[in-house]
Amino acid sequence: MTARRPQLNAVAQAWLTLGATSFAIWGDGERLAAWPPVADAPSAYLAAPVIVAGRPTGELRLAGLEGDTWRLRLDADARLLAHLVEVEADLEGITAELIDQQDQLLALYELTQSTRSHLDIDQMLLSVAREAGRLTKADGAILVFGADGDQMIAQQHPQPLLDHDALAALFRVLLGAGRDLLLNMSTPSIPFPPPVRSLVSVPIEIRGQLAALLLLVNKVDGGFIAADLKLARAIADHAGAQLENLLLYQETLAQAQLRTELDLAAKIQLRLLPQAVPREAGLDIGAASRPALQVGGDFYDLIQRPHQPFVFVVGDVSGKGMSAALLMAMSRTVIRSNARSEGAGQPVEIIERVNEDLYDDFTEVGMFATTFIAQYDHARREVDYVNAGHSPVIYCPADGDAQLLQADGTAVGVLPISLCEQQSLRMADGDVLLVASDGLSEARDAKGDLFGYDRLLRLAEALRTKAAKEIVAGFLDAVERFGAGHPQDDDQTLVVVKGIAV
Amino acid sequence: MAFNTRSSEDAAVAELDGRFDAHIAPQVSAWIEEMAARAPARLLVNLSGVTFIDSTALATLVQGMKRARQQGGDLHLCCLQQPVRIIFELTRLDRAFDIYLSEDEAVTAFDS
Description:
The structure holds 2 protein chains of 2 kinds. Chain A starts with a helix and ends with a strand. Chain A has helices spanning 5-17, 68-116, 121-136, 164-177, 226-252, 259-272, 321-340, 347-365, 438-441, 452-463, 468-482, and strands spanning 22-27, 30-35, 46-52, 55-63, 138-145, 153-157, 181-183, 199-206, 209-219, 283-290, 297-305, 308-317, 369-377, 382-388, 393-396, 403-404, 423-426, 432-436, 492-499. In chain A, strands 6-5-9-8-7 form a 5-stranded antiparallel beta sheet, with helices on both faces. A 5-stranded antiparallel beta sheet of chain A has the order 10-19-18-15-16. By secondary structure, chain A is α+β, with helices and mostly antiparallel strands. Chain A is built from 11 helices and 19 strands. By secondary structure, chain B is of the alpha/beta class. Chain B contains 4 helices and 5 strands, in the order ββαβαβαβα. A 5-stranded mixed beta sheet of chain B has the order 1-2-3-4-5. In chain B, α1 runs parallel beside α2 (55-70). The longest helix of chain B has 16 residues, at 55-70. The chains are: A alpha+beta, B alpha/beta. The interface between A and B is medium-sized, with 30 and 21 residues.
């Protein structure tokens, strides 16, 4: 409740100025804070309860002023404080939820990665069974696929628990039930063959027909719970989509991209971009990202930090699709937490840590992330930045030609040690820095020609007197007009910062 | 887009033409996997015919370079056209790769 010290200070000071002799915040029968700080608790006071989410959690106490007018104002302060506490609690809840979701997405992503490369059904079934067993801590996981009922393919992990006939009989009964089942003991209609003691059964629809089944057998400790069923359902949905995909592939010999994957990737990407542009003294900031149909790995971040300079980041994970979107989410999180940590230091120190954190993961999947990290020093009116392989970056000083800035180190994930050196740019009135993604320079027109660096430089010079937001819109419009008649191949992202009179 | 490979005692060479992007990258990646497993892992990608390279293709080359170096070998590049060279310079990938003007130079460099 006293987390907002400076704001509470202001409220308390206002009361003291109005004639109060003391102002205090109480909670759990204790005085949490008092103004002036040394005052003994007075015996006569006005009190207003702080009611958070319907529960009284504290009290504001005011001495030296009496009467209904002051009581009403004190009540209003208490309600405002309660609201603030509620909003902060909500925010924490949302953050925790997001982290949970990200964990689950990553688990499902690993599953996608491990199954997408399989082109034959046996391998794919085994891979799903293995991951399902691992994720749910079941003794055994079995995936059964029977296209027409007469032929049955099954994979059991870690070893065969049931012989073919027992499994075929169970498969028929469970598929016949037509719904998700969680059974911790045998029933007359569904008798368990040994060694089954408990099971989770999730039928999988393939092309509108129940044709496969994910079976979890014997939880390692205790019985199965509802959460196991839920997770099994998610895995089964994934397995179903993969099976359908495989069937399609086998029929057409052309691997189809999963629509669900793309939707998910697009959702993740949009959700992670800043929803609003912050206000920063001396800077005019504009930013936008236009995702391509096939999602790419662009991201940007605008990070305001208490007692530390404003930081902005633009990055692009190589490749496209689900993997690029998820690595983009991971990179963004790693950069953000590094930038926000106590003693985050200069951009060059941030990029070194980020490269250390991500190098192994990027090497594992054969990708990298170009990354531009800058911070604005208002006292010097300069931007200090590192550019790890990112392009195009354009600096357009108020009094000179636009220039393309070379990266000073390789992208994150290319070399085990970041070679970045920090550079500085003047950011006085009218100086403009544009950090774009290659989706702009590499946009193609109907003939297949590239938009290219020269057009970007000329455009920067033409637009530099405009506000940052209009510069961003001007670039995206120009690239869109140029690309008319050719589908957008890649994400297009642009962050513009411009020095303005203070 | 064309992708041709040949192999001699000195090096495994891949030659590309046209746009080097996500469409051809999987083929190149498969070739790298196969060649990097051989000893010595000496891979050369000749980009003389390449007019454009995208980030997926760059990632494929970076992965190949890492893979070859893990095996005690290397992946060299040669014969970059101007637009491709500019991309390597702008993104500083010219620091990560050994880049040569001719195929002969690139092959000889494996012995140094």
